[in-house]
Amino acid sequence: MNVEWSASVVARAQRHAALGEPARLAIIDRLLLGDASPGELGQELGLPSNLLAHHLKLLEQVGLIERSRSEGDRRRTYLRLRVQALADTMPTPLRTAPRVVFVCTHNSARSHLAAALWKRHSTVPAASAGTEPAQCVHPRAVATARKHGLSLGPAHTSHIDETLRPDDLVVAVCDNAHEQLGPRVPDRLHWSVPDPTRTGTADAFADALSDLADRVDRLAPAVQPPGGSDD
Description:
single chain
């Protein structure tokens, strides 16, 4: 019998086929909660560059991952998971942390918005900080938060050295902060969220908030306080 499958069924089958290889599935698992450069992936997963490039090409072809250019070191690219392309629900790796600290360069927009979103979804405490804090929180960040019913609380900036505590889970929400932290904070997550202050438009801040909200939705259920559930 000659059956003509719909385009969506064919696309799903291609994605399932791509995920049927252990290395590619490990790449997807790694990108579930945070972005990574190809070099970081190769080091963490123990894959030689030529084999990693092959796997990444196949995952890109079926639409499971995408690349973006670093806003810090323009020679770097970061890979991110295209969650909407996943056909099936994926298991969420669990993390234990007494607090989550969102870090961006100036602690003026993305890190504050991420912390505010986090407080909506989890009882695990959250804070924000910067590697090079600005003098104040960006007015557009305050306006965007207010428009979406979020409170930034005391809208002041702080340095990561003054904020970070032992065992905090650090989430770098910009490329510059991720690259600046380097091995200083080895066990961290990275979200490659474009900087809305570069253009300063309302749309740019709305896009950043939407990106952060999607990522917080994924991460919050995976983080529990030490010794028990946050329910």
